[in-house]
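As the work plan foresaw, the team has encoded backbone shapes as discrete tokens. One protein thus recorded appears below exactly as we store it.

:::
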Amino acid sequence: KLPAFYANTVLNVSNLPFRLQKLKETFISKFGSAPKFYVRAPGRVNLIGEHIDYCGYAVLPMAIEQDILIAVEPVKTQVVRLANINSLYLDFSTSVNNIQINKTKPQWHNYFLCGLKGIQEHFGLNNPTGMNCLLDGTIPPSSGLSSSSALVCCAGLVTLRANGKTLSKVELAEICTKSERYIGTEGGGMDQSISFLAEEGTAKLIEFSPLKATDVRLPSGAAFVIANSCVEMNKAATSHYNIRVMECRLATKLLSKSKGLDWKTMLRLHDVQTKLGVSLAEMLTIVEDVLHPEPYSTEEICKCLGISLEELRSQILSQNTQDVSTFKLYQRAKHVYSEAARVLEFQKICNEAPANALQLLGELMNQSYISCREMYECSCPELDRLVDICLQFGAIGSRLTGAGWGGCTVSMVPTDKLNTFLKNVKKAYYQTDVQRLALENNSLFATKPGRGALVFVEA
């Protein structure tokens, strides 16, 4: 008998489909015994709302079919042994009582350890269960489709189940959001939340503080197509992502101080709006009045806040942004407040479903992309070209999705143009490059809203 948490998330897999059967057979070959259960966590595509979750604002993602799947056997030895179906990822083992996460080398097993450690610390497990685990992933790595967070979520659910504990999905999402920061990425919680809270057939508006997921029914007549630029970007392996988080944090501090707020306690741009009690449009006006478009030096920031460089580094900046000398605050704040407004407008259009809904949604996606490219500077030449190609061949709206600097685009395409669109984009982007051509089959696909994390047991 399973705990109540799993009441709606257990599938009878007595007649295992091919992928599960292969995973089971490989597990037996690897560990000499059969897995006791399986856990699945999906990747996601963010339709709109880029780089604003860590600023406290709502985002609008949906889960996708691609996922992380782990076969698990709890064992009596206090050792966790990790293996991967993909031979490119090396085996790893460690004591469950001595979890060490290497921030300098974000290897695959470290993401598993994040989820493991998060659950252990939440429950204060002094005698955690050891495990044999075999992983199979179908989310393209470093593609902006949340392969890393799906692995953290999967590992958290694995650890929860193996140790006989229960949590709500919201609690699990919040724990996994915090635990992924062990690897050094200052993420905001969108990826983990949709991985647990997703439901088949609907996108979700994910709000924070408190965490809440609301159904968003996408309009009929269009498909959402994901296209991989084939440029990999690992958030934890570079400082690009954390620099943006720090720029938003610094903009929060300067805006707060200019308005007489307690800037030392303010961390997110959403907090400034909440404290002032003004609209997003009014926040954009305040940004224009308070911040200048020229980059801020660390010296100027320290002068504005009345603190030393040492205080800036030790109290505000993250570990991998200590040596950054200039920050763009005006541009980042403008993107965040305008993008937050676009998310709410996207939801409103989906709910009201006017006759020109597709056109309106496409315009919002295009505006989001321009802001990501111009104000947040998180695109790259390959993404720019891919967006142009998608728009050229019939997409109503197209934008980068995920952190950016590589990874994927998401495009909204009329269903009657879908086959022609896929054919033309393949020809224009993938078949002109040998490296992309090799990845073509897994790089371009239409997707529908999928379901969230699951535990499977055999009958």
